[in-house]
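Encode chain A's predicted structure.
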Amino acid sequence: MSDLALIPTRRVEAWKYSDLRAALGDEAPLLRDGRDIIERLAPSTERGLVAAGEQRFVVERLDRGEPTLASSSEWGVAEGGSLTRVVMQSADAVTLSICRVHLAPRARFRQFVLAEGGKLARIETHVDVAGAEAEVELNGLYLCNGGRHADLTSVIDHREVGGQTRQLIKGVARKRGRGVFQGKIVVERGAQKTDARQYHHGMLLEEGAEIFAKPELMIHADDVQCAHGNTAGGLDERALFYMRSRGVPEAEARALLIESFLVEAIPNSLPEDVHSELTQRIRAWLSGGAA
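Encoded structure for chain A:
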């Protein structure tokens, strides 16, 4: 079997909204050993360890102008440790990223992804909640202009008691833009007292925009609190009318409403300079012409 034949198409359930084979075209990429197609496309897997009680903060920028950009990382967070990861994706070609995180007891993993899409951009996150009372916060935004495709995919597997997950994904798409969210939370039989909440909200800014969302809960324990939700729609015309009636020009009113919708997903716990950069990226995107 050729390497090209191993590249997933829409027939693969996990890639049904993001046809990697079509995005790569006739390119026959070199695949190395690995557990996942992105890991096999990446030149290497970077590995890191957060020690017990340590707090680590990392920023990853996926903005290099390569035809295909693939990155793979793996983190272990020891007992009581904390890892905060921020990913900013803006490269306009095929951009692929996978990160695997293993959490020990009372460890914490926080992540925020801002994806501006590309020919096909997919940011995957897999979290193994292997320790009791570990916490996960997995938020993100996608901003899809015409011809851009952003896919935020995650799997969070709770395997021990008392774990907590909070996930909020928001996104907007313009005409011919495509935003994708696929999120799965698994609660294993031994993960009693798990508290997991997952929400996705998408906004279609123009006719011809596309948003696909597939939030999933797989619960095998009986003493848990779990919920998930999903919405997709347009701009609130009543709110727009109210702002215009107060003298705010239409373009400015639309931009303000979209920004207020998006920034809710940015955690206040991020450093001020990073929070400011994320907000400025949203405003720069909106200044390209709010719908």
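Residues 85 and 100 are 12 Å apart (CA to CA).
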